[in-house]
Amino acid sequence: MYVYVNGKIVPSKEAVVSVFDHGFLYGDGIYETLRVYDSVLFKIDEHLQRLFRSASLIGLSIPLDTNHLKIALYETLIANRLSNAYVRLTISRGQGSLGLDPDFCPKPTVIIITQEFKEYPEAYYKHGIRLMIAETRRNLREAINPQIKSLNFLNNVLAKIEAKKQGAYEAIMLNENAFLAEGTISNIFFYKGGSLCTPSIDCGILDGITRGIVTDLARQEGLSVHEGMFTKNDLYAAEEVFLTNTTMEVMPISAVDSQTYPVGKIARLLRKLYRRGVNAYVSGVKAEGPSLWGLEE
Ligand code: PDD
Fold first, then answer.
1. 219 is in which domain, residue-wise?
2. From CA 296, how far away is CA 64, in angstroms rounded?
3. Is the pTM of this model over 0.85?
4. I need a labelling partner for 71 at 20 to 30 A (CA). Which of 89, 130, 268, 279 fits?
């Protein structure tokens, strides 16, 4: 396996960063997770836009422009001969002396890790996965805004530990006012009385790219979509529940705590439409040009 490290694509054994990197020392950095379908980076522009927004929210200047980031991403995929892949693009503040001051770090560290995408077991989609509601609350927006996709992931790790202890696959975090926020790596939706509901951005969540696609698809299907503030009792009372993210796409939920749900028709429909949208996106990008898809001349 080859990894991109600051402009060089090197064997994974040689892919190392300094112990003085502020990403390691202070969780000072940002990242994106992308998925590659049939050699095409899905929604790359949206992911890079969000990366630049995260960078701007932490005052980090990304040393590559969008076009060079795309080249770096595709070159790493090509080096690894991957066509269906999981991609992790990480940018940290970089190497500097001890101390929080970002000015100690003159050069951000840019890392791209790609690996073969391992599909989730089909049984997960057929029967759903288990969720629990964590005691750990989502970071306060005024502390670390969840819209920053940051390396500072301890909030999510703590919730994930709770989920594992209870044998649940994913934990849902509430915000400081006990409204539903999001999962540790996912956004949540539920369906009740003809409405598809999902916590609004104001609840303090990451505006997932998959969440955006799924709400658009639902609206195009004529479903009423309600982005608002919901409690865990709203979730318990739902007819069906599902999660979204780049890797899971639309993942049905079989239980939240002790409440169980069937894998319903809305999750099945949206998963099907999502896949159709992926295929259309991939064909559209391929129709536009040759090997390095989506690059400007
Ligand atoms: N996680 N909320 C959180 C906290 C996330 O970390 C993610 C993504 C999402 C969903 O975002 P998207 O639909 O853009 O993938 C919501 C990725 C998959 C990760 O951490 O690897």
1. 122-282
2. 15
3. yes
4. 279
